Amino acid sequence: MQEYDALVYDLDGTLVHLDVDWEAVRHEAASVLRPHGVDVEDADLWTLLERSEGAGYRRLVDETIAEFEREGARASRRLPLAGTVPADQPVGVCSLNAESACRIALETYGIDGDVDVVVGRDSVDTEKPHPEPLLTTVEGLGVKPESTLFVGDSETDEETARRAGTDYVYVREFPAE
Questions:
Q1: Is 77 in contact with 16 (CB distance < 8 Å)?
Q2: Ramachandran sector of residue 140 (left: φ over 0; alpha: ψ -120 to 50; beta: rest)
Q3: What pLDDT band is residue 1 in, cutting at 50, 70 and 90?
Q4: Residue-wise over 126-162: b if at least 16 C-beta within 10 A, else e?
Q5: pTM of this prediction?
Q6: Residue 103 to residue 66: CA distance in whole angstroms
Q7: Which residues contact 29 (CB under 8 A, 6 or more apart)?
Q8: Theoretical Cys-Cys bridge with 58: which of 34, 53, 147, 163, CB 3.0 to 4.6 Å?
Q9: Residue (of 108, 68, 85, 65) closest to 7 by Cα position
Q10: List of residues 6+ apart from 81 with CB closer than 8 A
């Protein structure tokens, strides 16, 4: 991947697998919002997060989610691509997970020293697929979007890369050696 000036990775599903019971997280987020009169029926976790913002409880719900993510980062499973993070090239992580959880996972597997910039869901005012998180990561690396490769595991990651003007590759297509 030397043809790129920088590599940016998604975290969960790309470098590590966070051990998080997302249904338990959704249930806890709903229990935080319900007493405040926020409609939580039939809402997935990301809908709850959106509704929490509209109701003025985003910080409370985000911290609830982050607690689960930090625990999940401590109990995470290292994925094969984590062994290929280059030490001789600018590297960033851009994730929908909380920045603190990203840092815990990277530290757990000794990857933190090779990652120059970490941008999580709570690092900027928007989250993927909005381009701001990825563009903030790229800017922090001191490179241009068009000379950056974003490696991820989802259509959301792919859409983020398109909007930010970076190249994109799915983790399953990225050379792991």
A1: yes
A2: alpha
A3: low
A4: ebbbebbbbbbbbebbebebeebbbbbbbeebbbbbe
A5: 0.94
A6: 12
A7: 40, 45, 48, 49, 52, 61, 64, 65
A8: 53
A9: 85
A10: 9, 14, 15, 151, 171, 174, 176
Question: 86 preceded by cis ω (within 30°)?
Answer: no
Query: Which tokens go with 59?
Result: 């910080």
Burial class (CB in 10 A: 0-12, 13-18, 19+), 85: buried
Report pLDDT for 95.
Answer: 98
Residue 81 has which token pair? 């691509």
Burial class of 69 by CB neighbour count within 10 A (0 to 12, 13 to 18, 19+): buried
In the chain the first and final C-alpha atoms are separated, in Å, by 11
Using alpha carbons, select from 22, 24, 19 the residue that is nearest to residue 75: 19
| Cross-strand bridge partners of residue 117 | 92
Q: What is the pLDDT of residues 91-115, one digit of tens each?
A: 999 999 999 999 999 999 999 999 9
Cβ–Cβ under 8 Å, residues 115 and 137: no
Rounded CA gap, 148 and 119, in Å? 15
123 within 8 A of 136, measured Cβ to Cβ = yes
Instruction: Report the run of H or E that residue 20 belongs to, with start and end.
Output: none
> DSSP 3-state assignment of 78?
strand
